[in-house]
Input
Amino acid sequence: MNREELVATFAGFPERLGDAARAASDRPVTPGEWGPDETVRHLIAVEDEVHRSRMAQVATDDDPHWTWTEPGLAPGFDDAPIDAILAAFAAARAGNVATVRALDDDGWKRHGTHATYGRLDVEGLLQLATDHDAEHLGGICP
Output
């Protein structure tokens, strides 16, 4: 994917996620598995704790270093309807998309070092994000 396609994929995920989560919200959840609500809550936590932090760091710091981070569920949504949870995710993702779109060519080339993945530029961070998105979308879709 080129830069524009990658950013468009990252930006367009909330709509795809919303369609899948709404379609799956009536299905029974296998014990021990996450249903659509929990999956979206996890993705909110990832946006806040991983993507936002790393994108901000790579935009301003020289070679920030990151450890493996696997957030649980974003708090505060225990009884929230799926549409409210999806709206929170879409808002969090929109903020991260704005950060990425604000990067100039030099900003796009900036990088950090991940303890597991090694050197990652903005493209690498977005590729990891879209791969993570796809993994969780696959868990929602049968």
In short: The CA atoms of residues 113 and 119 lie 4 Å apart. DSSP finds five helices and three strands in the chain. The beta strands are 65-66, 111-114, 118-121.
